Amino acid sequence: MPYRFVSLIAAALLALPAGAAPVFDNPLVQQRADPHVTLQPDGYYYLTATAPEYDRIEVRRARDLNGIGKGESKVVWRKHAAGPMSASIWAPEMHRIDGKWYIYFTAGRADAPMDIRLYVLENAAANPLEGTWKERGQLKTGWEIFALDATTFAIGGKRYLLWTQRPPASDKHMTAVYMAEMDTPLSITGAATLLTTPEHPWEKIKFDVNEAPAVLVKNGRVFVTYSASATDANYALGMLTADAGADLLDARSWSKSARPVFASSQATGQYGPGHNSFTTTPDGKTDILVYHARSYEHIPGDSLHDPNRHTRAQAIAWRADGTPDFGEPVADKAADSSRP
Predict the structure, then answer these.
(1) Signal peptide position in this chain (predicted)?
(2) Can you give the pTM of this predicted structure?
(3) Which candidate in 93, 203, 208, 211 is catalytic?
(4) What are phi and psi of 245, to 5 degrees?
(5) pLDDT band at 173 (very low <50, low <70, confident <90, very high)
């Protein structure tokens, strides 16, 4: 390689700003909604997400988040032929807790696909693409009604479950976000706390929805994002905030954003961003928002039957007051050819 060419490359690299935010090859994975990504001490990023057929749970891993779409992958579980866990396999999240892997997911029945509940799988292997995933049954939330989108996190020596459920006294089909302490990775203890219900107009477009909580602990605070409205271009993220040292099971500890913190952008061609998770760069210096979105606005028919919610990622900026600035969903690196 000519010396002059090498010198030009070196000069270009030196010209990059220090600590420049990573740029991702969006979409990272085609036709994977509700993405959950975790970076583990073994150096791998692990991804679980909803497949458009709603029939299976797949685990992917790669050492580079940009390579997760082409990384190792394995279908670790498939829906049952009938009965519980035979339809609507949604929103799997994989967490490493006390030396074991757990996948929390949503499932319905073939004869009632929208009568959904929370379920758990467990695997004791070090590598979740190996070993045996055992069904550990339903994760009970205290009442038997429409429930989905479980996540978990630990702080202050306690582990919590957050999830979406239809309030027991609700007279309409709306969903809210709840939180409870966990006594084991398979169960909650004590009463559930109602964190948020749809109240702003942007949370009630077509459907009254607060769902898909995700947790980010930073700068002495706990940030919980959630998704609102129908799963089309109206889908958007809201956010709750509490002090990390507060009683997180006291609803009064939380404040709620009055406006969406992340929403569709005609400028970048991204629509319905939501159902996110959080991870970091390998050095832990940059926080990353992982989410799904479509590259077109108008969807014929039911948006849940449109398969083209793709997994995407972008770096998070931080404001001077210590709160996250998600900006707007960035444009895809290449044209999306999946549009119907």
Answers:
(1) 1-20
(2) 0.92
(3) 211
(4) -90, 0
(5) confident
